[in-house]
User: What shape does this take?
Amino acid sequence: MAAAAATQQEVAVAPQQNEEDDQIHVDEEQPLLAKRSPVVLGDGGGMSPMQRAISQTYQSTAHLATLLPTGTVLAFQLLSPVVTNNGHCLPSNRVMESALVSLCALSCFVLSFTDSFRDGKGAVRYGFATLRGLWVIDGGAPLDAQAAASYRLRFLDLVHAVVSVMVFAAVALFDQSVVSCFYPVPSEDVRQVLTVLPIAIGGVGSMLFVTFPTTRHGIGFPLSQH
Assistant: This one.
């Protein structure tokens, strides 16, 4: 009987061993880093139209953030989670976060009036646009009157400064730590406002930036070739 039991056990193990050998053979034939064909979902990834719109708005807002001063956005993204304690705010955290948001918004507004140029040696120089021209602020020699007049302040600069503040507000509202800090338990009405308002700001800001493009390359913005 012991011999018969052993024979039955060997017969049961044999198919399993054959299946393992076949699997190993298939794995050897198929490279480890072989490209897989992407899985395409016919229903848009299971997202509703509202969710797709919000996802696209996140991407649009990320693109709009590139139109803001780089240092300001980076400082906000680094300091906001620390100041808000990742959204778990005490009254003192709310005061500090309000100050941080206000200072970053002010920075976006002020830096919209800065511009840059290259001097005769190719060095980048920065200044503030005024009604008379460009006021050089880096301690170097000022521009001559004729060259400085081409950088004078225009109404378009004020438009871009206001839009920059609007776009920064949208970026701040998309930050979950900021929303959780000021609205830890939002009502349904507040939740709807916090969802729709950044979308509206991003849409209006994008339209204004595209319709009225700026030619300035100020502090924190990409440099011009000239």
Q: What stands out?
A: The radius of gyration is 29 Å. Confidence is low (pLDDT under 50) at residues 1-14, 23-44. Residues 84 and 200 are 25 Å apart (CA to CA). Strands lie at 114-118, 124-129, 134-136.
